[in-house]
Amino acid sequence: MLEMLINPQKAEQRPWEMFFIGAFYATISLVLTKWIFSGDPVLSKYTGILVVTFTVMFSIPFMFFAIKNEEEKDLKISGLGNLMKEHSKALVYFMFLFLGFIVAFSFWYIVFEDGNQNFRAQIETYCMINKPAHFSECVEEYGIEQVSKTTAFLTAKEKIVNIFVNNIYVLIFTLVFSLIFGAGAIFILAWNASVIAAAIGIFSKSNLSNLPLGLIRYMIHGIPEIGAYFAGALAGGIISVAVIRHDVRSDKFWIILQDSLNLVILSVVLLFVAALIEVFVTPVFF
């Protein structure tokens, strides 16, 4: 039923509506997780993962039809410029969907008194990335007691390489997930949205008035970074659909493969730009 709220053709015409769809999916996922699993002594420890799982379940039907729609464009439209222009429409409404996830997760992280416990896994990930040398102290600061092992401290010279390499790893996982299960990349993307939301909640110091500033702080470099992941997801998903619908030895398939490769190249370029912004631009303002 929920997948009937909006379709790819409608999303292309009014992409901003995907923001509200994303916020709705994220909110319903969090409410269901708290309602069903908050009293369970075991599963209550993994609510951060369960929230992401529900969000993915709600989003998969739309992702599938969106990727299918983009694959059909490859067969109807000729010219790299025209194809990229058409694919950009999908990237825009995907970005609005992702932004809806982030805003909703961030809002409820701050509003709920047990927000730290609802995003336990996300907080550990945040501390692993931002304070690897003081990981235990970081997670304890936010109310998480049992923690996993940490990694070594990274010097300032290693930051840009580390960020770019880590983002490439995420891109690879996104490609693999979308290749194996068309719309499966939404899991990686929803997970990243929840981690960013936890970081925004921490940055906002659990004060709703600071939420807009937190969003700006992470969206400066987050927009090209997430755009890259969605381009990668689109590339893998298009190939996945093409393998099912067309002979891999046909001319149509090779046209689709070339288009997907162009999207992957675009993804890598966007990730490099995002890494530069995160290291050299964002610290200037925050």
Q: How does the SSE layout of this entry go?
A:
Blueprint: H1 8-13, H2 17-37, H3 47-76, H4 80-111, H5 115-118, H6 120-130, H7 135-141, H8 159-180, H9 186-203, H10 211-245, H11 251-285
Helix pairs in contact: 2-3, 2-4, 3-4, 3-9, 3-10, 4-9, 4-10, 6-7, 6-9, 8-9, 8-10, 8-11, 9-10, 10-11
Task: Explain how this protein is built.
The protein is mainly α and 286 residues long. The protein has one domain (2-285). It is built from eleven helices and no strands. The chain has helices spanning 8-13, 17-37, 47-76, 80-111, 115-118, 120-130, 135-141, 159-180, 186-203, 211-245, 251-285. It starts with 7 loop residues before the first helix and ends with a helix.
The outline comes out as globular
Radius of gyration using CA atoms only = 19 Å
The strand count comes to 0
The structural class is: mainly alpha
Helical proportion, percent range? over 70%
The biggest sheet amounts to:
none
Supply the number of structural domains.
Answer: 1
> Terminal Cα separation, in Å?
42 Å
Tally of helical segments? 11
Taken as a percent bin, the fraction of beta residues is: under 5%
Sequence stretches where pLDDT stays below 50 over 5 or more residues: 146-152
Task: Quote the average pLDDT.
Answer: 82
Topology as a string of helices (H) and strands (E) = HHHHHHHHHHH
